Amino acid sequence: MPKLGMEAVRRRQLIEATIDTIHEVGFAASSLQAIARRAGVSPGLVAHYFDDKNGLLEATLRALFDDLTRDTVARLRAARTPRARVDAVIEANLSPRQFDPRLAKVWLAFWAQAMHVPSLARIQRIYQRRMLDNLSHALRGLLPAHRARELAHGVSGLIDGLWLRATLGGGQPDSAAARRLLRDYLDAHLERETADA
Amino acid sequence: MPKLGMEAVRRRQLIEATIDTIHEVGFAASSLQAIARRAGVSPGLVAHYFDDKNGLLEATLRALFDDLTRDTVARLRAARTPRARVDAVIEANLSPRQFDPRLAKVWLAFWAQAMHVPSLARIQRIYQRRMLDNLSHALRGLLPAHRARELAHGVSGLIDGLWLRATLGGGQPDSAAARRLLRDYLDAHLERETADA
Amino acid sequence: MPKLGMEAVRRRQLIEATIDTIHEVGFAASSLQAIARRAGVSPGLVAHYFDDKNGLLEATLRALFDDLTRDTVARLRAARTPRARVDAVIEANLSPRQFDPRLAKVWLAFWAQAMHVPSLARIQRIYQRRMLDNLSHALRGLLPAHRARELAHGVSGLIDGLWLRATLGGGQPDSAAARRLLRDYLDAHLERETADA
Amino acid sequence: MPKLGMEAVRRRQLIEATIDTIHEVGFAASSLQAIARRAGVSPGLVAHYFDDKNGLLEATLRALFDDLTRDTVARLRAARTPRARVDAVIEANLSPRQFDPRLAKVWLAFWAQAMHVPSLARIQRIYQRRMLDNLSHALRGLLPAHRARELAHGVSGLIDGLWLRATLGGGQPDSAAARRLLRDYLDAHLERETADA
DNA sequence: TATGAATGAGGATTCATTCAT
DNA sequence: AATGAATGAATCCTCATTCAT
Which of A163, C85, C193, D167 could form a disulfide with C138 if both were Cys (CB 3.0 to 4.6 A apart)? Predict the structure, then answer.
C-alpha cells in the first residue's frame, strides 16, 4: 500500500477528518482515534505526519486560516477603490462559506482553545491583526489616519460579532444580512465624516 | 454537625473553583479532580451537589449569566428614556467586569462548548435572545419597528464582536473604547434615521 | 469496599506484586497493568498510592533496601568485636534471603535501571556507600586506616561479585559457599597484615 | 547500486548504534526507531539484517563478548607461566576498556535482561563458565585441583564485583585499583597455600 | 539494498463516577 | 455532609513489525 508522495494526500485527509470530527462532536470529544477512524487510517499514522495531536490541530487551524487568507487576497487584488477594498475584506470574512456551520463551529472551537495553547494563539493573533491592518489601510484612503484606525476597529468588531452570533445562534443573521448590516454601518459613518468636513 | 446554609456555600465554592480552573488551564483540561482540589473538597462531593460534571458546568454558566442579568436589569430599571435604555444594555454587556479575563475566557469557553451540549446551548440562546429583545424594545421608542429590529442586530453584533476581539486579543479595545465605539455607532445611525424622516 | 486505613495494606500489596512481576517477566515487560492484575486491583489505583509507575518502582527498591538495612543493623548490633562486625555485614548481604531468585533478580534489574533513573540511582549510591562505610569502620578496629579502606573495597567487591554470579548463573556459588569464600578472603588478608607487623 | 561488503558495514553500524543508544537512554527506552535514527538508516532495515529486535540485541551482546574473548585469548597466548595466565584473565576482564562507561553500562543492561531472554542467557552462561574455566585451569598449575577451583570462584567473583561497583558507582575503584586489589588477593592466598604445604 | 508508509497492539496515565464509611 | 478508596474506560502516544516500491 505505501505509495510515494502520499504525504500531501494523507495530510489533507487527516485535516478534513479533524474538521468533520470537531464539527460533529466538539473539540473536547475529538479524540485522535475518532479522527483517524473517520479518515480511514490507523491512529498511529497521525504521529507519522503531524508528530502529535497538537501538531494536527495546529495544521488544521492553519489550513482554515490559509483558505480565508487566499480568498481575502484574491478579493483585495480585484478591488480598485478604497471603499472596494474595505468591502473586499468584509465580503471575504462574511462570505457564505464562513457561515457554513461545518467551518464556523470549528473556527470558534479553535478560538476558545487558542487562549490556552500557544501554537494556536499565534495563528489567532495573526488573523486578528491582519483583518485590522487590511481595514485600516483601506480606510486611510477615505479618512484621516486616527479615524481610519477607529473605524477599522468598529468594522472588524462588527464582522466578528455578527459571525459569532450567527454561528452560535443557528443562522441569524445569515451571510447576506450580515453584509447588509456592515454596508449600513460603513455608509452611516462615512456620510457623517464627510458631513463634518 | 452539618452547618446551616452549607449548601449555598459549597455550591458557590465549587462554581468559583470551576471558573478559576477554566480560566487557568482551559475547558478541555478542567477535570473534576482539578476543580475539587482547588475548591479544597473531595471530588466525590461534586456528585452530591451537582449530580455530575455537566451539572456543575451548567450551574457555572448559569451563575455567570445570572450575574450579567442582574446587572442589566438594575441598569434598565434606572433608565428613563429609550436611549438611556439602549445605553443600559450596552453598559452592562461591555462593563469592565465583562472584560476581566477571568470571566471573559470562561464565557468564551462555554460558548464554544454550547454548540455540543444542549443544556449549555439553552442558556446561550436565552442570552442571545434577551439582549436582542432588550435592544429592540428600547429602540422601538426611537425608530420604526423593522428598523429597530435591524439596528438591534447591529448593536448586539458589535457588542459581542468587540468583546470577542478584546477577549481573544489581550485587551484591545478595552471596556471604555468599546463603549465609545458603540455610542458612535448609535449616534451615526440615529442621526441618519432622523435626517431621513 | 473502601475501608479506612487501606493505605499500608495496598502499598505493601502493590510492592509485592511489583517484585513478583519483575521476577517473572523482567523489568522491561513489567507493565502497570500486569502488576495491578497480579495485585488484584485496577491499574488506576497505582496513581492513587504512588503517583505514577516510577513512584511504585522507587518504593519497591526502597522496600528491598530497607529490608536489607534492617537485617544489617540487627546483626551489627549483636556483634561484639571488630571481626564480628565485618562478619555481620557479610552475613547480611550474603544471607540465603539475598540469594533467593525472587529478590535477587529484582535487585539486579534495579541496578541496571538505576543508571538511567535518578530516583533509583540515589538509593543505589546509598547502598553502595553504606556497605563500604560499615566495612571500613569495622576493619579500622583491626588495621591501619588506609589498609582498612582498601580491604573494605575488596570485601564489598567480593560480596557483590559472588552475589552477581550466583544470581546470573543459577545458584553457583550459593549463600554458604559465598560466605565461606569471604571468610577465607578475610583470613588470608588479616593473617598477612599481622605477619607484616 | 549495491556496494560489495555492505552487509558487514551495516551490521557494524547498527550494533554500534545499539550500544550508543543503550548507553544513553537505557535498555528499556532503546527502541528500534531510536537505534535506526542514530545509525542513519530506516527502521525497516533492521529486519533485513537481524530479523527482529531480539536478533539485533543478541548480535550486539555477542559482539561485546567476542571482543572480550579476543582480548583474553591474545593475552593468554602471550603468558608463559601459570601465574601469568591467571593475570592475563584478570587484565583482560579489568582492562580500562571494560571500565569505559559506554561499554560497561551496556554489559550490565544485558546481564539484567539475560535472566529473561534465553538467547542472551546462553551467551551470558558461556561468559561466566569460560572465565571460571580459564582461571581454574591456570591455577591448577599452582594448587591442588579442588583449591584451584575454589580460588577461581573467588577470583572471578572479585573481578565481577569490582567491575560492577565501578560501573554502578561512577568510577570507584577504577581499572588500575581493581587490578591491584586482585593481585593482592592472589598473593595473599597463594602465599598462604604455600605456607600450608 | 533500502526506504518510508502503515498498522494495531500495548504502554502509562487521567478521568468521571460510584460507594462504603 | 463529606470523604477517600476504587474502578474501568478512554486518553495520547510509542512501539515492533510488515510490505510495496
Answer: C85
Percent helix, strand, coil in chain A, to 5, is 80, 0, 20
Task: Write the CB contacts of A41 (distance below 8 Å, at least 6 apart in sequence).
Answer: A10, A13, A14
- For the stretch C17-59, pLDDT in tens is 999 999 999 999 999 999 999 999 999 999 999 999 999 999 9
Cα distance between residue B173 and residue C95, in whole Å: 76
What CATH code is assigned to A80-196?
A: 1.10.357.10
Protein-nucleic contacts, chain D 18-57 to strand F, CB < 7 Å = 29-34, 43-44, 46-47, 52-54
How many other C-beta atoms are found inside a 10 Å radius of the C-beta of residue A146?
9
Distance from CA of B141 to the nearest CA of A (A): 20
Alpha-carbon distances of A177 from A84, A108, B150, C10, D65, rounded to whole Å:
19, 20, 9, 65, 80
Average pLDDT, integer, range A116-123: 94
pLDDT of C100 over the 50 cut: yes
Helix, strand, or coil here: B11?
helix
- Domain D58-196 listed as CATH 1.10.357.10: yes
The pLDDT value recorded for residue C1 is: 42
Bases on strand E under 7 Å from any protein CB:
1-21
Give me the residue label for grid cell 530506516: D42
pTM flag (> 0.90): yes
User: Among B56, B67, B46, which residue's Cα sits nearest to residue B15?
Assistant: B56
Dmax over CA atoms of chain C, in Å, equals: 70
**Which member of C114, C115, C181 has the closest CB to residue D154?**
C181
Task: For an interface test with B, give the residue of A22, A57, A146, A165 to mutate (most B CBs within 10 A).
Answer: A165
Below-70 pLDDT ranges, chain B: 1-4, 196-197
Which nucleotides of chain F have an atom under 7 angstroms from any protein CB? 1-21
| Touch criterion met for C and B (3+ Cβ pairs within 8 Å) | no
Q: Supply the DSSP string of chain C, one letter for each residue.
A: ---TTHHHHHHHHHHHHHHHHHHHH-STT--HHHHHHHHTS-THHHHHHHSSHHHHHHHHHHHHHHHHHHHHHHHHHH--SHHHHHHHHHHHHTSHHHH-HHHHHHHHHHHHHHTT-HHHHHHHHHHHHHHHHHHHHHHTTTS-HHHHHHHHHHHHHHHHHHHHHHHHHTSSS-HHHHHHHHHHHHHHHHHHHHHH-
The whole-number average pLDDT for the span D148-163 is: 97
Query: What confidence tier does C4 reach under pLDDT thresholds 50, 70, 90?
Result: low
- Give the three cell numbers for residue A148: 481610519
Question: What are the cell numbers at C95?
Answer: 544471607
Among A41-55, A141-155, B166-180, D55-69, where is mean pLDDT lowest?
B166-180
Helix (H, G, I), strand (E, B) or coil at B43: coil
Taking the domains of chain B in order of start, what are their residue ranges? Answer: 1-51, 57-196
- Cα dihedral C77, C80, C84, C85 in deg (nearest 10): 40
DSSP D2: P
Which homologous superfamily does the CATH classification assign to the domain defined by B1-51?
A: Homeodomain-like (1.10.10.60)
Pairs of CB atoms within 8 A across C/D: 137
Residue C195's pLDDT band (cuts 50, 70, 90): confident
Q: Which amino acid type is present at position C170?
A: G
CB burial of A148-161 (b: ≥16 within 10 Å; e: otherwise) equals bebbbbbbbbbbbb
Rounded Cα–Cα distance for residues D61 and A7 (Å):
38
Nearest nucleotide, CA C45 to C1': F6
Question: Omega before A82 cis (within 30°)?
Answer: no
> Which A residues, 16 through 45, put their C-beta within 8 Å of a C-beta on chain B?
25-29
Which architecture does CATH list for B57-196? Orthogonal Bundle (1.10)
Q: With CA atoms as reference, report the closest residue to D112 among D167, D192, D184, D73.
A: D167
Q: Which chain B residue's Cα is nearest to A193? A: B188
